[in-house]
Amino acid sequence: MDAARFVADARRRASVDVLCVDLYDHEAASPVLDSAAFYRSCFELLADGGVMTVNLFGRDASFETSTRRIVAAFGSEGVRTLQPTKEGNTVVLAMKQVTLPGRDELARRAENIETRWQLPARKWLRMIRPVAAAVAPTQPPPE
Fold first, then answer.
1. How does pLDDT run across 98-137, given as a tens digit for each residue?
2. What's the whole-model pTM score?
3. Terminal Cα distance for the chain, rounded
4. Closest Cα to residue 29, out of 8, 56, 1?
5. Domain spanning 3-99: which superfamily?
């Protein structure tokens, strides 16, 4: 199904807990869907406590514009980024009405994940960063 129509469908509002967005075309020049309206629709699609991940090219000039649009839809407190991969991909985490626990609690949870499922959760925790103040929008982002 077309992603733009899917997220804009009002019958689906507040019905999704996790949304993974990776919308590059075969040329991978920039995201195919990357408007402020698209990210607002993603926000509305998520249930309270829901999380959206977006894969962006962190070294690309469109990264800052895309991140500003996400922040405009979710608010800067609800948006985090992971450190870019060596290839330049950056995952943006956008959370709807989520209050993150403090670092100590997150570290305890990460240790639990590593113990139970042998996943590198403490490494992931070290990779998470708040959205830089320079990316927070001072005016509405371009459509």
1. 988 999 999 999 999 999 999 999 999 999 988 874 364 4
2. 0.83
3. 23
4. 56
5. Vaccinia Virus protein VP39 (3.40.50.150)
